[in-house]
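Supplementary material to the annual report.
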Amino acid sequence: MKALRKYRRLALGALVIAGLIVVPLNFNRYGLFILSQWAVMTIAAMGLNLTLGYAGQVSLAQGAFVGIGAYAAAIMTTQGMPLMAALGVAVVLCFAIGWLLGYPALRVQHHYLAFVTLAFSTLAFLVFRNEDWLTKGIYGISNIPRPTVFGVATNRPLPFYYLCLGSLGLVSVAMWWLIRSPWGRAFLALRENPIRALSLGIDTRRYTLMAFAIGSALGGIAGTLYAPLTQYIDPVPFNLSLSLDLLMMVIVGGAGFFFGPFLGAMIAVLLPEWLRFTEGYYLMLYAAAVIGLLIYSPSGILGILDRVLAERRSKAASALRAVAKSGFEAAP
Amino acid sequence: MTTVLEVTDIRKNFGGITAVDGVSFDVREGEILGLIGPNGCGKSTLFNCILGQLTPSGGEVKVDGKIVTGMRPSELNRLGVSRTFQLLQVFPKLSVRENLILAGQEHQGNMVSRLFGPSDAGLTEAADQMIGFFKLDHLAGLAAGGLSYGQQKLLDAAMAFMGGPRLVLLDEPAGGVNLTMLADLRERLAAINREKRATFVVIEHNMEFVMSLCSRVMVMAEGKVLAIGRPDEVRANPAVIDAYLGH
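Predicted assembly:
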């Protein structure tokens, strides 16, 4: 039964991956742009899901890390350096800054921590806007080149989409491995009960800093792909609203669920496009749908699924206990 | 016998209130020390000072001769000092087995090996042994939050033993546990003490539980040690009868 369920899941996964590879072959330029954006935002949301969903640390700074990654890529690749070098710089920079940003989380929690990270987000935005010598300020950086990967140029939308999709695949495998490792369990313990976690030998300080650092590094990776995707960046996309969008992706999809960011990013990036036929009403409908969803299921879309499965498991366990009890009572 | 825990003149003040006032005692290897006293006498505060959850205002704590005063709970746990809490502290969304695996994982390897090494590293087997020892076999795959209060208390105690601790401090393990389960818990604790020479300090209000399990009993009142000795000595002590046990 378990094996059957496993094979069914693998088959479903293979089908979705095949769909993501084959279906976009017929997409136009704009459709491919939107799908690439979904892949990039999913990576950023996965980072926030690690910090917030698994480790329980609120952050309103994820958009700033996407910005740091994007500016690293834009500045370096327009100077003729390869995107891989920019990726390395972005990851190291975001990891280090994320680690430092984690220190306040050792002292403050919840909305106080949200304000600390919000302040960092504002600071990063001001650096992007005011430090013209580095970021070209409000004029932004244009003509950002797209890379050549294994001899394949990604200038056209389809190869670049595959680059984004491949990156999402690699990040997903790494994240799957991380959350199934003892680190993943420690992050969960940190979220669920930090006092008990401490008493079990879990170094909550180090894991808190790690959750911030890794989550921020994933934001940096997303930013490194965002810059060549849009081929022009300025400070505006990396203001607080991007952090709030990413937060919404994680919460709507289901914080602490592996596939939550995939679904959340799909809703945040694709749903507004699908609702465009409603013209001026689409943003209102979108907002109403999100409010309705969160009232019905505060744990997001995957929370609904989890609730249904938990109820089914609980019924099965009760039935098993009843059978065991009747057997026990019938025994001489 | 070796002294495992040595507490000297521990004091803890909260503003103008002295919760623990110059408490000194020691616990020898393989011993079960019961800690009793009326509510608010400073038992749990003393536990929290020993275990690094609170920083003592004065005094010294030694484990195996090493000064551990003010050390973080996670560091103390890795030194072999474990605990349970007065209120339930299991991870409700994780299964019984996962709770136990989590309780044991930080005692193996280091941060790097825990990330790059195998995710299990023999912990499932160790968890299953503990599940069998505490007779939780039929609940192993169920979420801890769905267990009865008594079953969660058993799990809480089992988690404290996953790292193979040298010293375990149990804060009211019998609180809210029904009589059948209480007998089970006492029997399991006695078995671990017998078989593994584990050393315990137990805070408990259930006198029968304390008197039948502990080799020595310490009585606290108003933040101070009122009496310490064998259970029968303590039971007969007029000061203890007057302050706590009653006639």
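The longest strand of chain A covers residues 148-149.
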